[in-house]
Amino acid sequence: LSVDASLTATHFGFGGRWSPRPTGTYRPYAQALIGANRDSFALKAAGISNRVGISETRLMLQPGVGITGAYSDRWGAFAQLDWRYVQYQEEGDNNVRFVVGARLYMK
Questions:
Q1: 3-state class (DSSP) for residue 25
Q2: 67-97 confidence digits (pLDDT tens)
Q3: Is the pLDDT of residue 1 over 70?
Q4: Which of 34, 39, 41, 46 could disulfide-link 2, Cβ–Cβ 3.0 to 4.6 Å?
Q5: What's the rounded Cα separation, in Å, for the pair 26 and 23?
Q6: Rounded to the nearest 5°, which phi and psi values hold at 2?
Q7: Are 62 and 80 in contact (CB under 8 A)?
């Protein structure tokens, strides 16, 4: 008997970002997102035409801070730290997210 299972977590949100006027190479910012977290689980067994699945969508809040830097007219970098909270029925789920990356400015 062959069984195929999948678990998917999808986050979607919208919000705003505030940053002071640029005064040099680096620019700090703060942002806040509100949205939803959707978890889904699906299970399918070989030889059975029906697929069994459940899904759940919950409130997500994600405030964060970061900094961007422009190193030339075309290249820059950023670092960002966020706290993500998802409200489930019994209790909330807290996660910390840290992202570092490079930016290519298209002119």
A1: coil
A2: 999 888 889 999 999 999 999 888 888 999 9
A3: no
A4: 46
A5: 8
A6: -100, 135
A7: no
